Amino acid sequence: MNYPVCILTMHHCNYNENDFAISPELFKKALLMALDEGYKFIDYGQFKDIVAGRAKASKKNILLTFDDGYFDNYKFAFPILKELKIPAVCFLITDKIKDFERQNYDFTFKRHKEIDYEKDGEYFLNLDEIKEMRESGLFEFDSHTASHFSCKSNDEVKLREEFSSSLTKIKELFPKKKEFGFCFPKGHFNELSLKVVKEYYNFAFSVIDGGFCAEDDKFKIRRIDISNNGKTENDYIFRIKKKLFIYSIPFIGKIYSDFRNRGYK
Question: Can you give the pTM of this predicted structure?
Fold first, then answer.
């Protein structure tokens, strides 16, 4: 049986409400719900084996992903993942990776749309934090462009610059890596960026809602957004549980995803 992998994606783990954020407590509840329902979290290496055809997904497999590389991933999500022994992958905006000593661990987090990518360097993971997360054996890291550039652009020179610069930085940080994945910022892509990205990376993630099966397009890998937009915690947990249930069923999950995303371009 060719089972789908349910790829969960999020940005922030902090206490901002009505944002791209999940509180640490709710994040832990969601993970425990998935474990209680019999799902198994796989690591990035296992996922790469599935994408490359070296292995098959098992029933109820989940890959957990983080976009952008924010400090709150380290402060709030990482301790929970260590406690539950759950692996994850984080897609880094590589121009934001700085070798600085963090002075303040207790600042108030801005809302997602208020973060200034040029001025708010402390909101992103620094090199020491990335190293600690990687050495834990739970986190891997890959590319999210150099500057969070929209891949809907038709500027081929700029796209190549973003892809190559980001890839070079990832190779520099993780010299033992042999296969490289990419995550489209905001899920934006077009025919040009899809063509060009294949020259630099082995596969790429979108934000198209759904699960991933081995025969699917590996440069439009579907994911399930688990940012908190539920009215209540119970509503949020139910929504995640429902999506996991549907998208983990072969064939039915694909039909449901295709129907939901029929207008996606």
Answer: 0.96
